[in-house]
Amino acid sequence: INRETLAKMKDGVILVNTARGPLICEEALIDALRSGKVAAAGLDVVESETISVSNHPYASMDNVILSPHAGYDSVEAAEEIHEKAAQTAVALCAGKMPGNAINRRQLAR
């Protein structure tokens, strides 16, 4: 998402990014937030993974909510991870191929 993409959005849009920081041009978003083109942004990720300086423009913006790349961290997500781990362990103990195996050829040997 760059200046051109932001310009095509409705005025006052709220932008949320929980995917990958580099999907949004940070400089363009900062300008759009300052101008009001983008009313607010919720960012679980930023362009360079973490903001390491307290004087980063996002840090002083009232219309930006930052989270520490932990948007995945919910009760439901933890339950799903535990369930999948248990299913994998049961499959392995039964001598079966786990449903989530990526390296099936190597495991089949």
Describe the structure.
The chain has 109 residues and is an alpha/beta fold. Helices cover 37% and strands 13% of the residues. The protein has 4 helices and 3 strands. It has a 3-stranded parallel sheet. Helix 2 links the parallel strand 1 and strand 2. The longest helix is centred in the last third of the chain and has 19 residues.
Q: N-to-C terminal Cα separation, in Å?
A: 45 Å
- Oligomer class: single chain
Helix share, percent: 25-40%
Task: Please summarize the sheet with the most strands.
Answer: 3 strands, parallel
Radius of gyration: 20 Å
Number of strands: 3
Uncertain runs with pLDDT below 50, 5 residues or more? none
Structural class: alpha/beta
Give the helix tally.
Answer: 4
Average predicted confidence as pLDDT:
89
**Shape estimate:** elongated
H/E element order: HEHEEHH
**Spatial order of the strands forming the largest sheet:** 1-2-3
- Hey, roughly how much beta strand do the residues contain? 5-15%
Structure summarized in a few sentences:
This protein has 109 residues and is of the alpha/beta class. It has helices at residues 3-8, 26-35, 75-93, 104-108; strands at 13-17, 38-43, 64-66.
Notable characteristics:
single chain, 109 residues, alpha/beta, three-stranded parallel sheet, 4 helices, elongated
Helix/strand layout:
Layout: H1 3-8, E1 13-17, H2 26-35, E2 38-43, E3 64-66, H3 75-93, H4 104-108
Parallel strand pairs: 1-2, 2-3
